[in-house]
Amino acid sequence: MFYLLNPGNLFVLLNKASKLIKTIIVPLIIVSLIFSLFISPKDYIQGDSVRIMYVHVPSSWIALICFSLISFLTILNFLFKFKNAFIIYKSLAPIGFVFCFISIVTGSIWGQPTWGTFWAWDARLTSMLILLVFYILFIFSYKFIKDQNLSLRICTGISILGLINLFIIKYSVSFWSTLHQPASVKVLGKTSIHKSMLLPLSLMLLVFLLYCALIFLMKYRTEIIRMKKKGLKRL
Amino acid sequence: MNLNIFFMDGYGLYVWSAFIFTFLVCFVLFFKTKKSLNKLENDYKEEVKKLSAEQTDTLKTRKIPREILTSQSKAK
Predict the structure, then answer these.
(1) B16 contacts A101 by C-beta, under 8 angstroms
(2) How close B43 gets to chain A, by Cα (Å)?
(3) What ipTM did this prediction achieve?
(4) Distance CA B74, CA B76 (A)
(5) Rounded mean pLDDT of A117-131?
(6) Does residue A232 form part of some domain?
(7) For chain B, what is the domain count?
(8) Whether A232 and B17 lie within 8 Å, measured CB to CB
(9) How does the average pLDDT of chain A come out, rounded?
(10) Is the CB of residue A21 less than 8 Å away from at least one CB of chain B?
(11) CB–CB of A224/A87 below 8 Å?
């Protein structure tokens, strides 16, 4: 694992992966859009508005996964001063922020036909909004605080608080009576969603994950080149 | 032509706006990231040009700079 996290090896390997993703992502987007918008069935209660799920749910998952990874890497960097972790979480944070924002906006659009309102101060919705605020604070902390040690300490603090918030997001639908429905897709439990809807959902998740990987690779490359550019002066 | 595919029994406005918003945001992030990457790669290339032949040779023995410079020439 540490061999792969070495910037030099990772740089060469990930650049090849980036080219591969670019070739397969467009056909996958087309197929997943056809499935999500036209082939998948309507919901017997929500009708066609259920199709918003295919962009809303994967976005939410990615926002949560990204923050978990960022928190893990920030704590790793704080404890072991593992410098490459900084480059990785710096590349991941904007992706997580964008997907958290997409999740909130698409959820809000879905809320209007389903609940009759774009927004409610419901436990799930509010905790997702707090996650967005954590993302903003995290990005601002590494971008605008020049003192690296102070920036790292603030980022670690935000990560720990954010992890508590992730727990609240996950269990908000169980702890409180909320408008938001409980999870239909469970990793460990029984999934209650029908296969005809699970397929487009999985396809869209795959597309979003590939997209995230592509953006991550581009951002990672940007950070490495920025570092190497500074290094040119020392030659 | 069955226009209900697009109207979706009145839900079309919500569904299409959610999808368009999602993909628009993704495209903006992609192009913004690509633009800053290209700019930085070009800046790097310009700075390498200013180096002496000896410095350039030293640079080409290193894995990452070599990879950046190779991908630059491929991009041309």
Answers:
(1) no
(2) 8
(3) 0.89
(4) 5
(5) 92
(6) no
(7) 1
(8) no
(9) 88
(10) no
(11) yes
